[in-house]
Design goal:
Helices cover 33% and strands 13% of the residues. With 90 residues, the protein is an alpha+beta fold.
Length: 90
């Protein structure tokens, strides 16, 4: 992994990060949840508006409708609610 693509590199080198919505499955073997949590913690500490959702099942790519868990399809409603909460939509 390139050093500048780590959570530390991205957050420390960017003063104007956009609001971010995160969703990750705990059984995702391609993007481990601990990486997502670490990145979320760093941007939260920097004051970036953000929200994090962790699902017990879903693997990688559950947002493509290939969900293994019953709760993962609910991410869409959470995302729309977050867009409203942050003022992106009404």
């Amino acid at each position: 992994m390139r050093e500048d693509l780590t959570a530390e590199g991205i957050v420390e080198e960017n003063d104007a990060l956009p609001p971010m919505f995160f969703m990750n499955a705990l059984d995702d073997r391609l993007t481990p949840a601990d990486r997502c949590i670490e990145f979320f913690k760093r941007i939260h500490e920097k004051g970036v508006p953000s929200e994090l959702h962790l699902y017990s099942q879903g693997g990688h790519g559950f947002d493509l409708g290939e969900s293994k868990g019953a709760s993962t399809p609910m991410w869409k409603e959470s995302f729309v609610a977050w867009l409203a909460d942050t003022g992106f939509i009404r």
